[in-house]
Specification:
alpha/beta; Rossmann fold; UDP-galactose 4-epimerase, domain 1; seven-stranded parallel beta sheet; globular; binds nicotinamide-adenine-dinucleotide
Length: 334
């Protein structure tokens, strides 16, 4: 008798985005039947999803249409978000809160109605209180430091509201939602121009466009600290968390903290160019931030391992190639 194997199914909300696009590919490699949903197709890669549906998850009816059966795993990564220039300028606050909250309210409630238990929510290090991140050398981002809540952006406030929403559904509707607090994920196939890009991509683009002897602009004095996690390690942590029994929010980030000046110097060294750094005013976010991996080490017996330079080399190479492609096509605008 032939054994019929039924594939497990996964839904990736935000599959046209950076992390969602990588995640959908990874789930396909694992043998899942994958549906991706987004407002847009992935900009840089052909989707490998079995089904990719364009549409707006703020629309409840659309959410009901795409979440049409009991998916084994749902990854909710869709959000109205961007780097510091988008999130900290203040100009997008209302949209960020309204749009992302509506997406989470719809997706989670429809999942509950379809009896889906496993939903992973992509929260952020931006939920941590500003007053714990004033010192660039010793920021506190331990999971239990989140309360009393005092994020420095409306993006962070929406994330903390939605974290609580997912945890409330766990309690009241017997779901197994997981909450990942991502810390600055980077890698190829992310946004690198247009205003929503984050520091590693923005700095890489500036370097790729510069000639020996030029200066590249860095917002602020460059002494603010951050850590950055390569996307493949983010996916590994995400899948491990999803398939664990951890019902509390967990950091997924790197503990290799650098200043923005150090990041810029690393990328300049990778490029092999002779460039200087020019500091200009710009939106900055908190003074210091680093992942605290004590909880993930304890609960998952795992943490990211790859040194920053390895992922940055891959990312710079990819962005430099994209810049060169657009320059050749004559379509590049800064
Ligand atoms: P991204 O912007 O590349 O992807 C988000 C996707 O959501 C986009 O493709 C966008 O089109 C889609 N989207 C937005 N509104 C939608 C709507 N109404 N309906 C359907 N799709 C919609 O971002 P990313 O870097 O891939 O981040 C994924 C998730 O992880 C987000 O929730 C983000 O807040 C979170 N996160 C990311 C980082 C990071 O460093 N990249 C850090 C912390 C948290």
């Amino acid at each position: 008798m032939t054994k019929v194997t039924v594939k497990k199914s996964a839904l990736v909300c935000g599959a046209g985005g950076f992390i969602g696009g990588h995640l959908a590919n990874r789930l396909k490699q694992e043998g899942f039947w994958v549906r991706g949903v987004d407002l847009k197709h992935g900009e840089f890669e052909n989707s490998t999803c079995d089904s990719f549906i364009l549409g707006d998850l703020r629309d409840r009816t659309f959410a009901e249409d795409v979440i049409d059966h009991k998916f084994d795993e749902v990854y909710q990564l869709a959000a109205d978000m961007g780097g510091a220039g988008y999130v900290f300028s203040g100009a997008n606050d209302a949209n960020v809160m309204h749009n992302s909250a509506l997406i989470n309210l719809n997706v989670l409630d429809v999942c509950k109605n379809r009896d889906i238990k496993s939903v992973l929510f992509s929260s952020s290090a931006c939920i941590y209180p500003e007053h714990n991140q004033l010192d660039p050398d010793t920021p506190n981002c331990a999971e239990d430091s989140a309360y009393p809540a005092s994020p420095d952006s409306e993006y962070g406030w929406e994330k903390i509201f939605s974290e609580r929403l997912y945890l409330a559904y766990n309690r009241n509707f017997d779901m197994n939602c997981r909450v990942a607090r991502y810390h600055n994920i980077f890698g190829p196939y992310g946004t690198w121009t247009g205003g929503k890009e984050k520091a590693p991509a923005a700095i890489s683009r500036k370097i790729a466009l510069a000639q020996d002897g030029d200066s590249i602009d860095i917002w602020g004095d460059g002494l603010q600290t951050r850590s950055f996690l390569y996307v493949d390690e983010c996916l590994e942590g995400t899948l491990r968390l999803m398939r664990s029994d951890i019902g509390e929010p967990v950091n997924i980030g790197s503990e290799e903290m650098v200043t923005i000046n150090e990041l810029a110097m690393l990328l300049i060294a990778i490029s092999g160019k002779d460039l200087k750094i020019n500091h200009i005013p710009g939106p900055l976010g908190v003074r210091g931030r680093n992942s605290d991996n004590r909880l993930i080490r304890k609960l998952l017996d795992w943490e990211p391992q790859e040194p920053l330079i390895t992922g940055m080399e891959r990312t710079y190479k990819w962005i430099a190639a994209e810049v060169a492609k657009q320059q050749t096509a004559g379509s590049f605008t800064v």
